[in-house]
């Protein structure tokens, strides 16, 4: 998120790997550990990187926070079957360009995870859900700023998966905002939905018995003529 302009401290980084590249990624992980002491593996084969801790006041350059780097195979766990489309980003500290999943699709991956954990009572899951909400809110603002919409068609689903799965991610988030009476965020979310997508989601809300959706539909009906 920070490459896109977000301010939330990076707690983890997800790296999408194309099919057939898993062994290659294992090799890259090992090479990173060998050439750069900031990288380390754990006994459960998770890769971590040490970066300056923003919560420790300067000057304390030795203070470090550990950021988990997870390597995820495309197509697994409901992720896109290809890590694309992407945007290229670089920073002053990182002169090389890094491909980042396009925000119009990235927001759906964030919503996907959030919908699976937001109702959890586990502290770790609740913490992840809270950070996902921060990212989702930021991505909504980013898309508005760039005058873009969520692009359901660019999300490459696994064979057998239907587009309605993606619409459900947005529906559940929309319902969550309605239950929290967060009208402002609902308005922002709706502004990054194409009309056809919005209509499908609202139809699904009615199907799932969302009372707020029923109220919207009732308000939009023309008054009786007799």
Write the layout of secondary structure elements.
Blueprint: E1 12-17, H1 22-35, E2 39-41, E3 47-52, E4 64-73, E5 86-89, E6 98-101, H2 103-117, H3 123-145, H4 163-179, H5 183-191, H6 195-207, H7 211-220
Parallel strand pairs: 1-4
Antiparallel strand pairs: 2-3, 3-4, 5-6
Helix pairs in contact: 2-3, 2-4, 3-5, 4-6
InterPro entries: AbiEii
Region (Disordered): 205-226
Pfam family, one: AbiEii
Q: Could you characterize what this model shows?
A:
The structure is a single chain. Helix 2 (103-117) packs antiparallel against helix 3 and helix 3 packs across helix 5 (183-191). The chain contains seven helices and six strands, in the order βαβββββαααααα. The protein has helices spanning 22-35, 103-117, 123-145, 163-179, 183-191, 195-207, 211-220, and strands at residues 12-17, 39-41, 47-52, 64-73, 86-89, 98-101. The chain has 226 residues and is an alpha+beta fold. The strands form two sheets. The protein has a four-stranded mixed β-sheet with strand order 1-4-3-2, covered by helices on one side. The longest helix has 23 residues, at 123-145. The chain has a domain at 103-220. Residues 205-226 are annotated as: Disordered. Pfam families: AbiEii.
